[in-house]
Amino acid sequence: MLNIAITNMQLLIILLFGIYGANAATHSLQYFYTTTTGIPNFPRFVDVGMLNGEVISMYDSTSQRKIPKQKWMAENLDQQYWDSGTENIKGTEQAFMNNIQVAMIRFNQTAGVHTVQLMYGCEFDDQTGETNGFRQYGYDGEDFLFLDLKEMRWISPVKQGALTVDKLNKDKAVLEGHRNYFSTVCIEWLKKYLEYGKSSLKKTVSPQVSVLKRSSSSQAVCQATGFHPKDVTISWMKNDQEHHEDVEVGQPLPNEDGTFQKTSTITVTAEELKKNQFSCVVEHQGETFREILKDGSPPIGIIVGVVVAVILLAVIGVVVFKVYQKKKGFKPVNASDNGSNSSARTDPQA
Predict the structure, then answer these.
(1) Environment class of residue 44 by beta-carbon count within 10 Å: exposed (0-12), middle (13-18) or buried (19+)?
(2) How far is Cα 337 from Cα 2, in angstroms, rounded to an integer?
(3) Cβ-Cβ contacts under 8 Å for 159 (sequence gap 6 or more)
(4) Where in the chain is the domain with CATH 2.60.40.10?
(5) How far is CA 302 from CA 16, 210, 292, 309, in A?
(6) Phi-psi bin for 98: left (phi > 0), alpha (psi -120 to 50), beta?
(7) CATH 3.40.50.2020 is right for the domain spanning 24-202
(8) Sign of the four-CA dihedral 159, 164, 166, 169
(9) What does the radius of gyration of the chain's CA atoms come to, in whole angstroms?
(10) Which residue among 80, 154, 167, 271 is buried most deeply as judged by most CB within 10 Å?
(11) Do residues 232 and 205 lie in contact, with contact meaning Cβ atoms separated by under 8 Å?
């Protein structure tokens, strides 16, 4: 039986990278590689493929198999596709394990928890026809290396990446291969995947909105879950006026069934809550949902389960990586995959 559930490990990877959102007219194909050292009981290498923010494929060093995470991926791509993808990514895994050791030497480190990350992919605007590609590396949660596709050269913001930049910028054949991949191959596969999953990707599902406030805590959580597509706005109102003080809004995260969830947390003292009315407003696809915050509201099962899972994963994430403020890192830059990560064959050696 095909297992298409999103595991906690995958969710962790997505939490740590963040999900780069595109507008309604723009479609994106992204791959996220993460290799780690010093983390017991965690795969040393993980590859997660995403289409328009939804997980479509996955490989990890424990299972040693690249597998579909959407039914339509399994239905439209034969076993040879997955076998070939598995063999390609195994080679990439070995390269990344070497890279993390070299990076530790560059940063004068001999032990501890360390990570090398890669985000690469492409975008296509179906209204303007404009395309864009991106390929960026990070080490221990900080920007390490990125490919400027406009000038066709690698750039590093840190001195430890200088040797790698010099080496890669001399290889004009590989640079030209990247240009071809991002301008043609990646876009072709992006369009194929969109066609394969068009019925699923175009579905619209309204969110379920819930608000949780424990009497012993000053924090309240508003959660929207089960919605599709992933673009949603969550805001707080105080006495019917917009309220932004002490509010934190999370990123959209995937549910097991292909829908999404998003939370917003507000800090409100018991005294404030007695004197004022606070409410959560969720806007999705032209619909508006509103829930009033009440003191001492009983825990709602779906919120408790999801919030606890997300909090636990976020805590792990802070230990493993530096989570970016305002999504500062890993943003697509203006400047391989045959659908199963063929561009990985030219991953730079540190």
Answers:
(1) middle
(2) 23
(3) none
(4) 208-292
(5) 23, 9, 18, 11
(6) alpha
(7) no
(8) negative
(9) 21
(10) 154
(11) no
Residues found in the chain: 350
pTM of this structure: 0.71
Looking at the chain, the domain(s) classified CATH 3.30.500.10 span: 24-202
Question: Is pLDDT at 225 greater than 90 in this prediction?
Answer: yes
Residue showing tokens 């819930």: 210
CB 189, CB 269: distance < 8 Å: no
| 122 neighbors 184 (Cβ within 8 angstroms) | no
Q: List the one residue out of 196, 203, 22, 33 whose CA is nearest residue 125.
A: 22
Among 2-16, 58-72, 249-263, 312-326, the range with the most confident prediction by mean pLDDT is: 58-72
Alpha-carbon distance 45 to 53, whole Å? 21
Identify whether the C-beta of residue 204 lies closer than 8 Å to the C-beta of residue 291.
Answer: no
Residue of higher predicted confidence among 335 and 120: 120
Q: Which amino acid is at 31?
A: Y
CATH number of 208-292: 2.60.40.10
